[in-house]
Write a structure and sequence with these properties.
By secondary structure, the chain is α+β, with helices and mostly antiparallel strands. The chain has a single domain, classed as Alpha-Beta Plaits. The chain has six helices and seven strands; from the N terminus they run E-H-E-E-H-E-H-H-E-H-E-E-H. It has a seven-stranded mixed β-sheet with strand order 2-3-1-4-5-7-6, sandwiched between helices. Strand 6 and strand 7 form a beta hairpin.
Length: 231
């Protein structure tokens, strides 16, 4: 029996899934919550635009404090995992530096590549569950709690780390991450939390260059490619 026998045209598919959440959203009053939602939408749109991603092709399941995104089948995974997340970090950092009132906007971001199928209330399957569990992991929350200068806490699934980050085709360096185990509702999930940002990794090299020190540049640019649109 195939995956489509019972539910007609519904089929199981592999997709890149992104989840984003605003830190301490519930602690904000209604006006600040609305502002956070508006600012988040603007930041994600600008980050996507800067790396050539078309958000109109994304399936987005929104909540008050964030959203879950299923990206198109032909998206370049390396661009999303590396360049897009870096753009979020860069744009958000500048946004917070220019902020004159209200709480800083700080984000948790999770990524996973796995199976799902369209459903009447949103995507069903393993991928949306895994990315949601990783997003809510204590290790990710702790990054923002312990490092107040950070604006983004990023976690990728173990499979995405192995298949994309470690390849050298991604603009994120494997050494930026540490492995974590996430226990949620009796199930153990494995992920990799970014412990250093791209700027933090490049800063020592920049300082060496200014002081006349040697050292070669690091390789890496994009990542892998992903699956198609959900409607």
């Amino acid at each position: 029996m195939s995956c489509t026998d019972v539910y007609g045209n519904v089929r199981l598919m592999y997709r890149l899934v992104l989840a984003v959440d605003v830190e301490k959203y519930s602690a904000r009053d209604a006006r600040e919550q609305l502002r956070a939602q508006t600012d988040l939408r603007h930041i994600l749109s600008l980050a996507a635009q800067n790396v050539g991603l078309d958000r109109s092709l994304w399936y987005e399941q929104v909540s008050g404090d964030g959203e879950l995104v299923v990206l198109p089948e032909d998206v370049d995974v390396s661009v999303v995992v590396g360049d897009f997340t870096h753009q979020i970090e860069k744009i958000l950092g500048e946004f917070n530096r220019q902020r004159t009132a209200g709480a800083r906007l700080r984000l948790r971001v999770a990524l996973h590549h796995g199976t799902l199928t369209p459903g009447p209330f949103g995507p069903a399957g393993d991928a949306p569950i895994v990315v949601s569990r990783l997003l809510d992991a204590k290790a990710v929350r702790r990054v923002l709690a312990d490092q107040q200068d950070r604006d983004v806490a990023l976690i990728v699934s173990q499979t995405l780390y192995q298949d994309v980050v470690r390849t050298g085709f991604c603009s994120l360096h494997p050494d930026e991450f540490r492995s974590v185990r996430v226990n949620a509702k009796g199930v153990v999930y494995h992920g990799f939390v970014q412990r250093r940002t791209v700027e933090e990794r490049l800063a020592p090299a920049a300082l060496r260059a200014v002081s006349g020190g040697g050292g070669g540049g690091e390789a890496g640019a994009g990542l892998v490619a992903l699956p198609g649109g959900l409607r």
